[in-house]
Amino acid sequence: MFLVTKRKELNPTVTLMEVEAPRIAKKAKAGQFIILRVDEDGERIPLTVADTNPEAGTVTIIFQIVGATTEKLNHIPQGGYLHDFVGPLGVPSAIEGLKKVAVVGGGVGCAIAYPIAKALHNQGTQVHSIVGFRNRDLVILEDEFKEASDILKLMTDDGSYGEKGLVTDALKALIESGEEYDEVIAIGPLVMMKFVSKLTKEYGIKTTVSMNPIMIDGTGMCGGCRLTVGGETKFACVDGPDFDGHLVDFDEAIQRSRMYFGTERHQHEATCNLFKGVKEDA
Question: Are both 64 and 117 inside the same structural domain?
Fold first, then answer.
């Protein structure tokens, strides 16, 4: 059992948790993830390590409430426990030697982009962060990105906060103003990463994307997280989660990500009704 030492709502659908997991806290690096189960009968879900505190022995995760498991997870209080918390898994992000990087995050993907921006900043890399959200109410980790970035561009679709526009608008403006990047690291919705990669390919800028498809065992055995990269089959859990954005078959990845949308929504609604019923009975 793993103790939840902190719980904080970042916006109406995104929650931060710190979990007591000393061994993982000592070993996890930017870009890696854990797999957890809320209870003994729960499904296994992957979540990126958003931060670690080796001294306190805690690991920070940030999740969006989209299905039954994340709904259950969101009901675990501070002081409560998770049944399983396994990691670190995946290959750490390859950031050594980079001098100047643009980190692009979209929505809850910013929870994955932040630890990479922080690690880059800590090693002396010049970091330009571009983060995008639908509106002001959904903005997360703004102060954290400010601290880890030499330049921060915050974009909202409706212009309710920061600058109005897409992350690709801000990235293109920076490139055309003369900024030269060793690499662009993009993390967020598949469509966002697709168009960031399409843009950077025009300018010949190396681009890395973090892929988070459906995972089950996290060891490469089940094949649920398979992707096509450069015409070859890769498994995000053991080969990734980072891949060359110019080689990923995003159209295939988007199609596969939608396969269980209806089931996920149904299970989420059922779980919400279950918790509602428990609350009413109480």
Answer: no
CA distance 151 to 45: 33
Nearest to 260, CA basis, from 194, 216, 211: 216
Instruction: Tell me, yes or no, whether 275 lies in a domain.
Output: no
HSE on the CB side for 260, CA within 13 Å?
12
What residue numbers bound the domain in which 144 lies?
Answer: 100-257
Instruction: Indicate which CATH number applies to the domain containing 177.
Output: 3.40.50.80
Does this model's pTM top 0.70? My answer is yes
DSSP conformation letters of 33-50: EEEEESSTTPPPEEEEEE
Tell whether 202 and 83 lie within a shared domain: no
Provide the 10 A C-beta neighbour count for residue 217.
13
Overall domain count for the chain: 2
CA distance readout (Å), 122 to 71, 146, 282: 34, 13, 49
One domain for residues 108 and 232 = yes
| Amino acid letter for position 7 | R
Antiparallel, parallel or unpaired: β 81-82 and 2-11: antiparallel
> Half-sphere exposure of residue 151, counting CA atoms within 13 Å on the CB side?
13
Q: In the 8-state DSSP scheme, what is residue 151?
A: E
Contact 240, 218 (CB under 8 A): no
126 and 53 within one domain: no
- pLDDT tens-digit profile of 84-126? 999 999 899 999 999 999 999 999 999 999 999 999 999 999 9
Angle between helices 167-176 and 190-203 (to 10 degrees): 20
Q: At what angle do helices 190-203 and 250-257 cross, to 10 degrees?
A: 170
